[in-house]
Design goal:
With about 325 residues, the protein is α/β, with parallel strands linked by helices. The protein is built from 14 helices and 14 strands. The strands form three sheets. The chain has a six-stranded mixed β-sheet, with helices on both faces. Strands 3-2-1-4-8 form a five-stranded mixed β-sheet, sandwiched between helices. Strands 5-6-7 form a three-stranded antiparallel β-sheet, with no helix packed on it. Strand 2 and strand 3 form a beta hairpin. The chain starts with a strand and ends with a helix. The relative contact order is 0.17.
């Protein structure tokens, strides 16, 4: 039996979970603690705050500590997350923090590994398909930005994550009216090109609703009005479907595409809308392929923790 401490650190909350791996390789969730990230002046203080919470697993007793962070990761050891005031450096993890074994991964690498965890297995099916076991799986999710990652079987019974910053690439607009929206966004944001992070995100909902109605609302306020503003919902669903289709084709996700992140989990009508399905399946050249890719929605808010634990389990057993 091995004890895993998983962490999912975001700009607002830092979540920690104690997992146990049994003799058959299964993971069991034993306990979760939520801490406010801003209440710690450093990563070391955050770990000290966790100790004060007296979690069921102390960091120093874990066989491995796996940390998912909302930011780029260097060499699996360092990160300067853009939405947090402090850095993480695990170069001296044992002497600095008491971790006997530690791993640092991007938050969407964790979401990719969540696809093969209990969180992924309990996902809602959005679109049917025929998943190919030995093929790539893709995960995409809109929140503050638009995250991407792919997961490839390594041929040895495990998986390798392929991180991506595809959310920073240009978003494709395909009609005269959509191009008018693009011009609106460029003027509104003062940018010379528009990315997926801008269009398919919480903030994107506000921009879209303002363009279509002239009304300025926060993302939650827009979501609350979806059923009274069907045009906003239809456009948002179409854009989300396009982002999902493009990424599924880019990584050839014949193993399936999983949608994670706060926007779809809080407003599932986005991905269950007929406009999402129509846009995801639309391809003039590869319709037969895209028709076979199943799409799932991960609604478990602890999916990042499950993914970090699954990554840690695989690392322990190499």
């Amino acid at each position: 039996m091995k004890n895993i401490l998983a962490a999912d650190i975001g700009g607002t909350h830092s979540r920690f979970a104690h997992f146990v791996e049994d003799e058959k390789g299964g993971l069991s969730l034993c306990g979760i603690k939520w801490l406010k990230t801003a209440e710690a002046a450093s990563f070391g203080q955050l770990v000290d705050n966790l100790r004060e919470e007296k979690m069921s697993l102390r960091p120093e007793d874990a066989d491995i500590v796996a940390i998912a962070i909302a930011g780029p990761v260097e060499h699996g050891l360092k990160s300067s997350p853009p939405l947090i005031s402090w850095d993480i450096d695990l170069s001296r993890a044992e002497s600095d923090f008491g971790f006997r074994n530690a791993a640092l991964i991007n938050d969407f690498v964790a979401q990719a590994f969540a696809c093969i965890s209990e969180a992924g297995k309990s996902a809602d099916k959005v679109l049917p398909g025929e998943a190919v076991a030995e093929a790539a799986r893709a995960v995409i999710g809109a929140g503050t930005g638009l995250g991407h990652c792919a997961l490839m079987p390594d041929g040895k019974g495990g998986f390798t994550a392929l991180p991506s910053e595809a959310g920073h690439s240009n978003f494709a607009f395909v009609s005269k009216r959509e191009c008018e929206y693009q011009e609106f966004l460029m003027k509104e944001r003062g940018e010379h090109y528009i990315t997926g992070n801008t269009v398919v995100s919480g903030g994107g909902l506000s921009h879209l609703h303002q363009f279509l109605t002239g009304e300025e609302l926060t993302p939650p306020e827009v979501a609350e009005k979806f059923y009274r503003c069907p045009e906003t919902l239809e456009w948002a669903a179409r854009f989300y479907g396009r982002a999902c289709r493009n990424y599924a084709l880019q990584v050839l996700a014949r193993g399936g595409l999983h949608i994670a992140g706060g926007v779809a989990a809080k407003s599932p009508e986005l991905v269950f809308h007929k406009a999402f399905a129509a846009e995801f399946r639309a391809s003039d050249t590869l319709a037969a392929l895209i028709e076979k890719i199943p799409v799932y929605l991960i609604k478990d808010e602890n999916s990042g923790l499950w993914g970090a634990a699954e990554y840690a389990r695989q690392r322990l057993n190499k």
